[in-house]
Amino acid sequence: MNDVEIEELLKLGLEEMIKKIAPWLSEGSGWLIDSVDNHYLNIVEYKPMKGKLYIKLPKELRNAMRGLINIKNYDNECFRWCHIRHLNPQQKNPQRIKKSDMTLINTLDYSGIEFPVNIKQYNKIEKQNSININVFGYEKEQPYSIYVTKEKFDNVMNLLLIADENGNKHYTLI
Length: 174
Prior knowledge:
The chain is built from 4 helices and 4 strands. It has 174 residues and is of the alpha+beta class. The model has no long low-confidence stretch (mean pLDDT 86).
């Protein structure tokens, strides 16, 4: 964002404040606003959560009894690999991508989906593939929901989105 854009946004913010103050003054409070001496503007860069390359699970989640399958992918498509493993469960080494998984890629509709997948694309994937998707996060040894489906398909896939110390994120199948 450049200086001109910031200045325009500040002017818009001032106009918005005036619009909110005007009705209050018109209700007959008798008060007058002489000046706004200070205000605080907080600007942050929006980075939607996206899962991509393989990340080791946190120590406390590595036990196979936890029911997590952490696919060892080396591309940005861990979401799709989880979807494939969901449809093609494996008893032996479920974390590995198998030849049989490669044939399932063409049966899924990921047209118009950018990898790594972010939250804005979940519903589109659900509708294109007739599947309910729930995504959970995990931080400080506590799970929390990121996305809970509103669709009503028979098939349900639950995912855990984990992050490493560098901020990289990765989907694992629950």
